[in-house]
Amino acid sequence: MTRELKQQYTLKITQANKSQLIVILYEMFLVYIDEAKQAHEKEDRDGFRDSIRKARGCLNELTASLHLEYELARNLLQLYLYASRQLAKAEARNRVGELASVEDMMAKLCEAYGQISRQDTTGPVMANTQTIYAGLTYGKNTLTENLTDQGSNRGFRA
Rounded to whole angstroms, how far apart are CA atoms 72 and 128? Predict the structure, then answer.
């Protein structure tokens, strides 16, 4: 994941509510799957494994976020376990074939959660975060982020 993409996700995370955080995890998962496919194409085995492990990390977070007292969550758990097995197979066999079905499934879930998140009117999970203003500030066609109130008391409130 590029530095710029990490910054974009960091900004999204600081401003996201609970359902938007799930969408972000799906998006990150899909980015890592795409990176794994690119690494495999370049015959970069370490890059392939690293991307698969990062995708598995997103999958672990999605699994941890489930409320298993609901039937829908138990169904999602089965899908996540299937995805985890497919990722393990892909990593062990150094093949991308197993990734296609997982990528398709997760893209559909991402789209579904995206629709749900648009209806979620709750506030951001994180409070007291930095305010970021973006604009053309230093030159023609140069986008610069400015951080204000860089105090040490940021993020979740205790």
Answer: 33
